[in-house]
DNA sequence: GCGCCCTTCCCCCGAAAGGGGGAGACCCGC
DNA sequence: GCGGGTCTCCCCCTTTCGGGGGAAGGGCGC
């Protein structure tokens, strides 16, 4: 039995979800709240597996509530519900520890299977938004759009390739495997990278890659 | 009719996929290739809607092939197939413009619906990997409130000190000089850092430091 | 006092990395 | 053809790293 909590400031919407979920044999709505703060309060006294959380709410929004809920060890997982598409709010909620998100017009069947997935430890993303999520994810590459020649001065394509893999923490052997090269070749390329950039070892290569924006921390945009 | 191309160096796997897809009324396998370069060549002469692309292949891997294919305006969408789970390769492919990825052991039903989704402009992600994708996407905010001692799990003050210097690209000898310690001591501390954080070498320490926000690009120095 | 952890430093060892040189292959421009 | 650049791979070598011990002092709590 999956114990679900509904958090949304719209009474009608909660009613609708309650009816849909009530019809399921393995799902049980055990709690409700109309805003984030109330939700956090209620959760102190009720055992819940999955929280269906609206993003935009009065008093405390879904992002902050998600953060507080996820800060507790062994607390429930949070599935974000949003009226509109993927927006900054949703991204913030994901960063706050949500297990995924759905649009509120999700077909009941999909909602239930999403709850089961989240309960099982998986994450879910509204299909219509997956593309945009990936796009957003893909933005993380070399400083906006292309590899500017200036930053990596006279490096060849192969050398840059090796550089980036070094910057991901791979050993020469691993890079060789990934690029299907001999380790000797990787060493040759890396040696030239070190010489051209005036670096001493691979640790400095990693530093350079981050500082030059060739590699971007996944936390930041 | 959705025109599909199969790109994989394993003949048997292509055969299996061809049979599964051939049974679908709205899907048609119109081309095949055994490596990325061949795929790009073939695509110059054949109209394709969706490319099912293996990642690891000889000659040219799926990442580079995806990049080339997606560089063409109005070209086909690319769906990545991977044997293993989410790895650096898959991330690279997504960054290169892939519309998503599936594990090769995907149930036929899911494969077909994924192809339809991709053809319709949506993206798809293997359900088992969605959670990890979101983690990777969302995890560690840049420790906005400063670096609290507990953040780096069980590291001692001295270990964190060494970690940061490693993350600046210093050698053990240089760190020893700066902290006025013997190099042996630095090695001891660093060894514990590696063990506690599950890292292999100092290059991975640098990666960790940037990803965890212990070191921030530009502020370097 | 005793145990525990942190810190400091030492040994030895094997593996990985960095540096030197050389060489064959390819492509491209002259 | 001939040179330049890139990519590939090999040899040799020294240094650095990382991992396995061990050991000694200090602080802190019980």
UniProtKB/TrEMBL annotation, chains A, B:
The keyword Phosphoprotein applies. One of its GO terms (molecular function) is DNA binding. Residues 3-119 form the Response regulatory domain. The modification 4-aspartylphosphate is found at residue 54. Residues 148-213 form the HTH luxR-type domain. Gene3D superfamilies: 3.40.50.2300. GO terms for biological process: phosphorelay signal transduction system; regulation of DNA-templated transcription. It holds the Pfam family GerE. Signal peptide: none annotated. This is LuxR family transcriptional regulator. The lineage of its organism: Bacteria, Bacillati, Actinomycetota, Actinomycetes, Streptosporangiales.
């Amino acid at each position: 039995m999956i114990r679900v909590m509904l958090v949304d400031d719209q009474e009608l919407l909660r009613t609708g979800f309650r009816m849909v979920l009530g019809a399921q044999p393995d799902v049980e709505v055990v709690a409700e709240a109309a805003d984030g703060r109330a939700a956090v309060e209620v959760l102190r006294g009720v055992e819940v597996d999955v929280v269906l959380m609206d993003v935009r709410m009065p008093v405390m929004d879904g992002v902050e509530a998600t953060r507080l809920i996820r800060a507790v060890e062994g607390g429930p997982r949070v599935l974000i519900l949003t009226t509109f598409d993927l927006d900054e709010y949703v991204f913030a909620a994901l960063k706050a520890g949500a297990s995924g998100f759905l649009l509120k017009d999700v077909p009941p069947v999909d909602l239930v299977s999403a709850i089961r997935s989240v309960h099982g430890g998986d994450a879910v993303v509204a299909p219509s938004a997956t593309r945009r999520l990936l796009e957003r994810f893909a933005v993380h590459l070399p400083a906006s759009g292309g590899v500017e020649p200036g930053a990596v001065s006279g490096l060849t394509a192969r050398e840059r390739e090796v550089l980036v893999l070094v910057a991901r923490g791979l050993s020469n052997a691993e890079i060789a495997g990934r690029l299907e090269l001999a380790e000797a070749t990787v060493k040759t390329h890396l040696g030239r990278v070190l010489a051209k950039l005036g670096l001493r070892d691979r640790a400095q290569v990693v530093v350079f890659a981050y500082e030059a924006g060739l590699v971007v921390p996944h936390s930041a945009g």
